[in-house]
Amino acid sequence: MDERRRLIELVLDERLSVTTASHALGVSRKTAHKWLSRHREHGLAGLTDQSRAPRSQPHAMSDAIRETLLSLRRKHGDGPHQILFLAARALPGVRLPCVSTVAELFRREGLVASGRRWRSPSLHRTRAGLGESRRPNEVWTADHKGRIRVGRRYAYPLTVMDHWSRLVLGIDVHESTGTEESKRSFLRIFRDFGLPDRIHTDNGTPFASPGLGGLSRLSVWWMKQDIEVTRSRPSSPQDNARHERLHRTLKERTARPPAETLCAQRRRTRDFVRWMNEERLHRSLGCTPAEVYARSAREYVERPREWEYGAHAEVRLVRSNGSVKLGGAYISVARALYGERVGLEEIGEDLWRILFRRTVLGVAKLRGDRVEMLAPETEPESEDDDA
Question: Is the peptide bond before 234 cis (omega within 30 degrees of 0)?
């Protein structure tokens, strides 16, 4: 401002030419003429900096779009990607702003909670997991979402999801993690959606047990439907990260705070399933899960056929204590297999592989009337293999 006033004094008061004055102050003649013109029109107030904002913004967000985005944000509480997806459905054919513009709008309106972003220290480590499935019903994931205090009781939501499409196949709010309640839920899901090729769970109840192969009554029932059963590593929720993310969203939308009664909590959960499947955008899919999921062609069978182990295998019926007898020894298999037929394949001298249907449960080394159990991956090479 001092230099601009000095320029005016040199030209108007001291009667110097514009060329001489601009040379003395080290500015161009064009700049000098600009400030002289401003002074003639507005006086000293014209020497202040003017706004550089464009006079017109043809692509600016309209008030109607702005109010639609803000109302959707307040109603659903989702991020800018999801809000734009919902706005595109509410305003078909209307040009919407980009994601960063919507995010800035939410920040200006105070609709974004400030906080430090947490980054996992193991972000760059190699982690085992399910990997990528290629089609619907190739892999289903299942788990219990801990326990939720509902009124004076505890609730245990059982969650089942298709890994490829992210479709939530069912969330049933149970009063325990018992086998029978879980079996009823899976029976309904099997009849509604068919059977998957594989079900992946953690090592908790009712999906696994401490017995051989980690078999439980529920997993044995799945295997009799010719479903492969796989599990995460112990204490490794990152092996089923997609399902854990489902649990996080479920807790945020239905259990903070939970409903007062189990019936109300179940209604809230049903609304959540509909929202997840039919309304919520999954960015990796570019659409909702319901738009890409297809029902399985495999049907649930009430009485599955007996498994044929082949003529080379010894077939034994599992006793009530979970054991089978081979020669003079009793091999402890799993109580969950009570009444089921298992196959015993001799793979070496006093060395037997134990199978239930197509799954290898372990290897038994007979030492007279004693049995030493070996894990399938530690199976020693037999003399035939060496030959």
Answer: no
Distance CA 314, CA 318 (A): 13
| Sign of the dihedral defined by the CA atoms of residues 207, 209, 211, 213, in that order | positive
HSE toward the beta carbon, residue 108, CA cutoff 13 A: 9
Our measurement of the distance from residue 312's CA atom to the centroid of its chain's CA atoms, rounded to an integer in Å, reads: 45
DSSP 283: T
Same domain, 202 and 232: yes
- At which residue do the structure tokens 């007996």 appear? 306
pLDDT recorded at residue 386: 47
Measured CA to CA, the distance from residue 31 to residue 7 in angstroms comes to 10
**pLDDT of res. 336:** 94
pLDDT at residue 381, as a whole number: 52
| Cβ atoms of 278 and 158 closer than 8 Å | no
Residues 226 and 354 in one domain: no
Query: What does each C-alpha distance from 303 to 73, 299, 300, 306 come to in angstroms?
Result: 50, 12, 9, 9
Residue 28 within any structural domain of the chain = yes
Which residue stretches of the chain have pLDDT < 70?
A: 114-129, 375-387
Residues 171 and 245 in one domain: yes
In the numeric block, the tokens 């967000």 are attached to 61
pLDDT at site 116:
57
Tell me the pairing of strands 359-367 and 370-374. antiparallel
Q: Are 226 and 333 members of one domain?
A: no
* Alpha helices by DSSP H, 160-240: 179-193, 217-224
In sequence order, what are the residues at sequence separation of 6 or more whose Cβ sits closer than 8 angstroms to the Cβ of residue 142? 158, 159, 160, 161, 186, 199, 200, 201, 207, 243
Closest CA to 212 of 334, 364, 329: 334
Angle in degrees, CA 334, 338, 341, rounded to 5: 95
